[in-house]
Amino acid sequence: MEDTFQHIPVDKLLGKLLEDPVVVTVFKQHQSCGIAKYPKMRDFCDTDTFRQNSFFQQHPDALMLHLFVDAFETVNVLGSHTTVHKL
What CA–CA distance (Å, rounded) separates 83 from 87? Predict the structure, then answer.
């Protein structure tokens, strides 16, 4: 079985998303929701890490991206993607 990948240019994808006025409205509504009260946490903006980050203090309206890989398994030797090339 041959490995494959998908290349998604994030800058072009974000450019297209931000052309849509509905998407921009949703982003702005989220930014204006305020900070959740402890112990509730909606997202990264409600964490001390966000509040203490110098970049986000200077640019509170910055767009944050959360990137992830669904099949990343570092120590599970019985995992679904176990091979001789484990990390």
Answer: 10
- Check: CB of residue 46 under 8 Å from CB of residue 35: yes
**Number of domains composing the chain:** 1
Q: For the full predicted model, state whether its pTM sits above 0.85.
A: no
d(CA 81, CA 87): 11
CB atoms within 10 A of CB 70: 4
Domain assignment of residue 14, yes or no: yes
Give me the count of residues in the chain.
87
Please state, in angstroms and rounded to a whole number, the distance separating the CA atoms of residues 83 and 3: 13
Domain interval for residue 56: 8-87
Q: Is residue 3 part of a domain?
A: no
Helix (H, G, I), strand (E, B) or coil at 55: helix
Q: What's the rounded mean pLDDT across residues 65-85?
A: 65
